[in-house]
Amino acid sequence: MCGTLTHMHPALFYFPGERLSLSELCAARLDGHLVEVGDAYMPADTVEGPSARATAVVGFIPEGTAAMGPTAAWIHGAGDGPPTTHHVQRAVPRRVRVPHLPRRRFHDIPLAADDGQLIGPVLVTTPVRTLCDLARLSPTHPSFTRWARALAALDPSLATAARVSLSDRGRVPGKRHGLALLSELGAAATTR
């Protein structure tokens, strides 16, 4: 695994139904005491960074899996709100049983250890791996292109690094399409 980012204390997060009801959390948000982060709430004076976003989706990322695709892109800072469906993939060599949730999609593809990093309490694919996955899977998941553009806009060198990484990988589904999209994103980054 790549580096670890400090995570926020779980006491700073409120999930509906745990300590307060959804109506109490909404009232506190309307009063300006809390802000909504994904499916959770945190104090209004707390910075919403990758750790806060990761903590907000911890309930969707079971043990033995990592956030990937649009979920990882959102955790890394892309987009204003989380995706409606969270994507996770296997992060351990053995098979894992992931209960079905309507808002979670499980990809049973093992993640290499150096393609993941711990952000807060959640294992997340690195920005480079996230962009590779978004680019190569975009033909079957049309919203992934929007997430790839948002993630690539955060760092002008990311698309080039992702293109090199995807080029170095063996045969993977969607590689040709992914390389073309990453080339387009890299060219767009150099013209900014």
Any key phrases for this structure?
8 strands, 3-stranded mixed sheet, globular, alpha/beta
N-to-C SSE series? EHEEHEHEEEEHHHH
Work out the oligomeric state of the chains in this entry: single chain
Strand line-up in the sheet with most strands:
1-7-8
Mean pLDDT: 90
- The structural class is alpha/beta
The N- to C-terminal Cα distance equals 32 Å
Name the poorly predicted regions: 1-6
Number of helical runs?
7
Helix content: 25-40%
Given the C-alpha coordinates, what overall shape results?
Answer: globular
**C-alpha-based Rg, rounded:** 17 Å
Proportion of residues in β-strands: 15-25%
Main pleated sheet: 3 strands, mixed
What is the total tally of β strands?
8
Any overview of this molecule?
- The structure is a single chain.
- The chain is an alpha/beta fold.
- Helix content is 38%, strand content 16%.
- The protein is built from 7 helices and 8 strands; from the N terminus they run βαββαβαββββαααα.
- A 3-stranded mixed sheet has the order 1-7-8.
- A hairpin with a 2-residue loop joins strand 7 and strand 8.
- Helix 3 runs parallel beside helix 5, helix 4 runs antiparallel to helix 5 and helix 5 runs parallel beside helix 7.
- The chain is globular.
Briefly summarize what is shown.
This protein has 192 residues and is an alpha/beta fold.
Architecture blueprint of SSEs:
Layout (H helix, E strand, L loop, with lengths): L3 E2 L16 H9 L3 E4 L2 E4 L6 H7 L8 E4 H8 L9 E5 L13 E4 L8 E4 L2 E4 L1 H11 L5 H10 L5 H11 L6 H16 L2
Parallel strand pairs: 1-7, 5-6
Antiparallel strand pairs: 2-3, 4-5, 7-8
Helix pairs in contact: 3-4, 3-5, 4-5, 4-6, 4-7, 5-7, 6-7
